[in-house]
Amino acid sequence: MRKKLSDAQKQAMLDKDAPRLSTIRLIQAAIKDKDIEARSEDNPDGVSDEEILGILGKMIKQRQESARMYEEAGRVELGEAERAEIKVIEDFLPRQLSEAEAEQAIESAISATQAESIRDMGKVMAHLKAEFTGRMDFSKAGTLIKKRLM
Questions:
Q1: Could you count the other beta carbons within 10 Å of the beta carbon of residue 92?
Q2: Could you give the count of Cα atoms lying within 13 Å of 49 in the half-sphere of its Cβ?
Q3: Contact call for residues 123 and 115 (beta carbons, < 8 A)
Q4: Of 18, 20, 65, 98, whose CB is crowded by the most CB atoms within 10 A?
Q5: What is 19-77 written as a DSSP string?
Q6: What are the start and end residues of each CATH 1.10.1510.10 domain in the chain?
Q7: pLDDT at position 90
Q8: Is 96 within 8 Å of 32 (Cβ atoms)?
Q9: Region 99-149: CATH code
Q10: For the whole model, what pTM was predicted?
């Protein structure tokens, strides 16, 4: 994942694609912050690829919220800039599960964890996050799990 980001940064420099380059640098800065935090917790290797996917997912959610707020305030150009950053970040995420695939994954996780009630939701979410980080919208998954377990 780090190599992919580095290569993309070099290509953006060669292409003189300033918006893409800026977003890639933001991604790398967020990863570096987490690396520093991980080193202070006795993890000299820094963050793993799975954790990087989590960072990217968090960055997308932040930008979606910012874009929504900008657009509500009538600052459409700033909302569009946030959405452009989202597209760049999404380039580094694996393919998202379709709704049908997500529902199938949830059913599989429920049966694997033997979840029977809403109290078992944490086990199901942990199972899904272990397997589908960066490929599934967990807020939507949470809603589907609640419906299934109620």
A1: 18
A2: 10
A3: yes
A4: 20
A5: HHHHHHHHHHHHHHHHHHHHHHTT-TT---HHHHHHHHHHHHHHHHHHHHHHHHTT-HH
A6: 2-90
A7: 87
A8: no
A9: 1.10.10
A10: 0.70
Cβ contact 144:103 at 8 Å? yes
Instruction: Give the Å distances, CA to CA, from 42 to 36, 45, 47, 51.
Output: 10, 9, 11, 16
How far does Cα 102 stand from its chain's mean position?
Answer: 15
110 CB-contact burial (10 Å; exposed 0-12 / middle 13-18 / buried 19+): buried
Specify the domain boundaries for CATH 1.10.10 within the chain. Answer: 99-149
Q: Is 42 left (phi over 0), alpha (psi -120 to 50) or beta?
A: left
pLDDT band for 73, please (50, 70, 90 cuts). Answer: very high
**How far, in Å, are 14, 17, 113 from residue 49 at the CA level?**
26, 25, 25
Which fold, 2-90? Answer: Hypothetical Protein Yqey; Chain: A; domain1 (1.10.1510)
Work out the percent of the chain whose per-residue pLDDT is above 70: 100
